[in-house]
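Quick one, probably user error.
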């Protein structure tokens, strides 16, 4: 059974940094690309960043490019998101995602709140 557990969220002032983690279990996750999404109150879930199975290729939403860095440690089945220069517009619940054989799997999310 695929399980994704996010952590690392919290309250931070504008301009600050946070590092999110996602611990994955139930599969050999090194076979799959993984991603971060986020959802703010009253808004649809949106793509944040994606990383290839090997970690050699990454992509980012324009809104976070240059501020966020996605990485992974396949030996530890862990996905990371380093978030710098945070702004109130980054306030959301952040979700870890993996798509396996056409099925999307999500964690429970971790709340990030950025105060101005």
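Nope, works fine. Designed sequence:
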């Amino acid at each position: 059974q695929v399980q994704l557990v996010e952590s690392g969220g919290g309250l931070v002032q504008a301009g600050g940094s946070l590092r999110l983690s996602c611990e994955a279990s139930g599969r050999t996750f090194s076979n799959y690309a993984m991603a971060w999404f986020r959802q703010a109150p009253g808004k649809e879930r949106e793509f944040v960043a994606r990383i290839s199975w090997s970690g050699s290729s990454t992509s980012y939403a324009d809104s976070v490019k240059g501020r966020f860095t996605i990485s992974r440690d396949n030996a530890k089945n862990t996905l990371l998101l380093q978030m710098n220069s945070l702004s109130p517009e980054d306030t959301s619940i952040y979700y870890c995602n993996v798509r396996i054989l056409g099925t999307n799997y999500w964690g429970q999310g971790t709340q990030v709140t950025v105060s101005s």
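The longest strand covers residues 92-100.
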